[in-house]
Write a structure and sequence with these properties.
With about 260 residues, the protein is mainly α. The chain is built from seven helices and six strands. About 45% of the residues lie in helices and about 10% in strands. A three-stranded antiparallel sheet has the order 1-2-3. It has a three-stranded antiparallel sheet with strand order 4-6-5, covered by helices on one side. A hairpin with a 2-residue loop joins strand 5 and strand 6. The N terminus is likely disordered.
């Protein structure tokens, strides 16, 4: 593509050089003096343009064309890279211990398409706040949109409570999309985090609006943590070997503990 563009421009250049170098009698120079001074000069035909001059001009234009092509290619590559979610670029909080937590953000573009932040208050959020809150809202929607209000608050706080804790990330979104590899398979902390919503998927608008607003309220600490600092939870219907047998807080259909 780049070479075809250069050859096309060279063809146009050659045509331009011929038309501007050999000019018939009576054509006024583009550098004519302003009206009121000496009369315009007429360019005389000159068929003796040296090949050396033409080559220098061609080399100069080729260099300019190559530079423009490289610049445009670089800009396009940067634009393409910007559309690929490598990470959410969330600033880490200061004075937190180093973490080896890994997060899988591949679902983010798809989630933003189907579940965008669109409640009125979202318009006033900073970029960093939007990233945190959308991660919280997605987690609420898929984990507990049908649960009780107290239950929803407790689950909203879990990725916040994990910040700075061993084995977890130092920001909300890393804790929502965190994964590990067990027996050669990826395991997300929240099972929905690897989801890809199809074109025919439809959200529950009322539930999505409520989850967004609750995420904003929890993020700004407008409501207290009903889970009392819990960093884990699971459904009461599950029997899991990795969970402690006691010291769990029951809220709705979930068990919470730290």
């Amino acid at each position: 593509m780049r070479h075809r563009y250069i050859f096309l421009c060279l063809g146009l250049l050659c045509s331009t050089l011929v038309s501007t170098t050999v000019i018939p009698n009576g054509i006024v120079s583009a550098n004519a003096e302003p009206t009121g001074q000496s009369p315009p000069r007429l360019l005389q035909p000159d068929n003796t343009v040296s090949s050396e001059t033409t080559n220098v001009a061609l080399e100069s234009v080729i260099t300019k064309i190559e530079t423009q092509v490289l610049d445009s290619t670089t800009n396009y590559a940067m634009e393409q890279q910007d559309t690929t979610v490598q990470s959410l670029e969330i600033p880490l909080q200061p004075n937190l211990p180093a973490t080896n937590a890994k997060a899988d953000f591949r679902a983010v573009p798809n989630l933003r398409q189907h579940l965008p932040l669109n409640v009125p208050e979202a318009a006033n959020l900073t970029s960093a706040e939007r990233k945190d809150i959308e991660c919280m809202a997605w987690n609420l929607y898929f984990e507990v949109r049908g649960g009780s209000h107290k239950e929803q608050i407790a689950i909203a706080y879990v990725p916040i409570n994990r910040i700075g804790k061993p084995d977890f990330g130092n920001d909300i979104c890393t804790n929502v999309f965190q994964y590990g590899i067990h027996n050669g398979q990826w395991k997300h902390q929240f099972s929905w985090a690897g989801i890809r919503l199809g074109a025919n998927w439809h959200r529950e608008d009322d539930a999505w609006e409520k989850m967004q607003q609750l995420a904003i309220d929890v993020y700004h600490r407008r409501v207290n943590d009903s889970g009392k600092g819990a960093t884990y939870f699971h459904s009461v219907r599950l029997q899991v070997s990795w969970a402690p047998k006691s010291n769990k807080l029951i809220i709705g259909q979930h068990l919470f503990w730290s």
